[in-house]
Amino acid sequence: MIKGSCHCGAVTFEILEQPDFVITCNCSICRRLNTRWAYSQRTKMTLRAPEGATHAYVWGDKDLEFHACKTCNCTTHWMATDGSRYALNCQLASEADMEGVRVRRFDGADTWELLD
Ligand SMILES: [Zn+2]
Prior knowledge:
By secondary structure, this protein is mainly beta. It has helices at about 30-35, 95-100, and strands at about 1-5, 10-15, 20-25, 35-40, 45-50, 55, 65-70, 75-80, 85-90, 100-105. The strands form three sheets. It has a five-stranded antiparallel beta sheet with strand order 4-9-8-7-6, with no helix packed on it.
């Protein structure tokens, strides 16, 4: 299991099985946030983000909300605005929990394909 939390502990998550891989992305937001994503469609996971604990950044097509903790400002997850899927930022997990998890590079800036 991979456990993660923001720095202050208001938002926590658990990834129940080790994912095949997590994603780094070079799109305009991910490259700035330096995130590593695990996706709800691929992996069993739970997110505990109490109502009001995060603020959301939405722009452009407005199909994703990028959430960060209101208290400590860590980027915790993104959520589809229709609620259909989400992803957790594995930078919030310990190095020990992430050991052996492959990190794959996704070209979100251009082709929307994996680069490796
Ligand atoms: Zn926090």
